[in-house]
From TrEMBL:
It comes from the Bacteria. This is Predicted SnoaL-like aldol condensation-catalyzing enzyme. Keywords: Signal. It comes from Ferrimonas sediminum. Residues 1-21 form the signal peptide.
Length: 286
């Protein structure tokens, strides 16, 4: 009996020891590394929370800044955050996509006032080394079709069609927006199903035409002159373009959703580019 008791007791201790060791090993396992999308989302959210950890996702020796109101490098990023009124920042990243070493995000901000923004980050060896953005003041109400600047689908689909969708969107921007070939527009846009998130334009090609006509009546011209970048993931494609709006040097960021080989939805931000004398870095907007 004593021998049996001793055996049971010894076995119980061994099982308990193994279980304890297993739990200990589990608790000390390294967490899965964050994806580039997760790093971008966390960095943007840290503007609101003040969390210091996401700053480590930026290369401290190389951070090229293209927001012309922010100085270059980590010092410039920190100075911009310190200038924010305490407790004023709010960051809600609605959608985020990746194209190779580039991650682009669409965010609802309160950053020196309510704004909608697109941010692009470039990575090298897992760290952020470059940043571009385009910010527009958030309108007080929805557009004529009841849509906001950020609502709608958020997840990329058709991941194997990224290259084809990028080519389609680039063709549209170059042919229609840059070169004014309006007769080709239905080659790119689905005329019976085109959802619009620009705050001043209604759904459909009729809504786009009416908005352009209204601008023309007011003597306001909008010119796309050059496409600088086309980024995409699946059925979402972002273009970065330079031009003028009402004679003002302007940056246009346009996000398109593609379905069955046609553009079916559009979001954008439009930002005036200040004169070079007001720039806080020399990297340029694009």
């Amino acid at each position: 009996m004593k021998s049996w008791t001793k055996t049971v007791t010894t076995s119980s201790v061994l099982v308990l020891s193994l279980a304890t060791a297993a739990c200990s090993n589990t608790s000390h396992q390294q967490p899965e590394p964050l994806s580039q999308k997760e790093k971008v989302t966390a960095l943007l959210k840290s503007i609101e929370t003040g969390d210091a950890e996401p700053v480590s996702y930026i290369n401290p020796n190389k951070y090229i800044q293209h927001n012309l109101g922010v100085a270059d490098g980590l010092a410039g990023f920190g100075a911009a955050l310190q200038a924010l009124p305490e407790g004023s920042a709010r960051v809600d990243t609605v959608r985020v996509f990746q194209d190779g070493d580039f991650v682009f995000a669409h965010t609802d901000y309160n950053f020196f006032g309510p704004k909608i923004g697109f941010d692009i980050f470039r990575f090298e060896q897992g760290l952020i080394v470059e940043h571009w953005d385009n910010l527009q003041q958030t309108p007080d109400s929805a557009n004529p079709s009841g849509r906001t600047m950020t609502d709608g689908p958020t997840q990329a689909e058709e991941l194997d069609s990224t290259d084809a969708n990028k080519a389609l969107v680039q063709g549209f921007v170059n042919d229609v927006l840059v070169n004014g070939k309006m007769d080709t527009i239905t080659q790119y846009i689905e005329p019976n199903y085109y959802l619009q998130h620009n705050p001043g334009i209604a759904d459909g090609l009729d809504g786009l035409g009416a908005a352009l006509a209204a601008m023309a009546e007011q003597g306001i011209t909008m010119e796309y002159q050059q496409v600088h970048r086309v980024l995409g993931e699946g059925n979402f494609v972002l273009t970065v373009s330079e031009g003028t709006l009402g004679g003002q040097h302007t940056s246009f960021y346009d996000l398109f959703r593609v379905e069955n080989g046609k553009i079916v939805e559009h979001w954008d931000t439009i930002e005036a580019i200040p004169p070079q004398s007001e720039w806080k870095n020399g990297n340029g907007k694009f």
